[in-house]
Design brief:
This protein is α+β, with helices and mostly antiparallel strands and 113 residues long. Helices cover 29% and strands 15% of the residues. It contains four helices and three strands; from the N terminus they run E-E-E-H-H-H-H.
């Protein structure tokens, strides 16, 4: 869409840290706003790419599904990818970090009812 208003197209961008050339940085971005040239030399992971080798969903996907965490499902891929990126960066995130990771995601389910 090129507007970045909902976060449904969130992907994880992974890139070698240019300062130390040792660590990999992971960040969530709205795919609709990221120019193709901005992901040169990066790894782009989509929601389809976080399943394991046996095609088993990522734990974030499983928990959202089991706990009825989505209603219409439009925002779910973006929320899953934001959470996945947070968990890749921090094994045990704190609540404030979890809240911050969802800043770019918008669920419109409440507006419908």
């Amino acid at each position: 869409c090129g507007e970045g208003g909902c976060g449904a197209c969130t992907v994880m961008i992974s890139q070698l840290n240019l300062l130390d050339n040792k660590t990999i940085e992971h960040r969530s971005v709205n795919a609709c706003l990221a120019p193709l040239c901005s992901v040169d030399s990066c790894s782009v992971t989509t929601v389809e790419g976080i399943v394991d080798q046996n095609n088993k969903p990522h734990p974030a996907q499983e928990r959202i599904a089991k706990m009825h965490g989505s209603q219409c499902g439009f925002c779910t891929p973006g929320i899953v990818m934001s959470l996945h990126t947070l968990l890749v960066n921090k094994n045990k995130p704190v609540l404030a970090g979890m809240e911050d990771c969802f800043d770019g995601n918008l669920c419109r389910s409440k507006d419908v009812f």
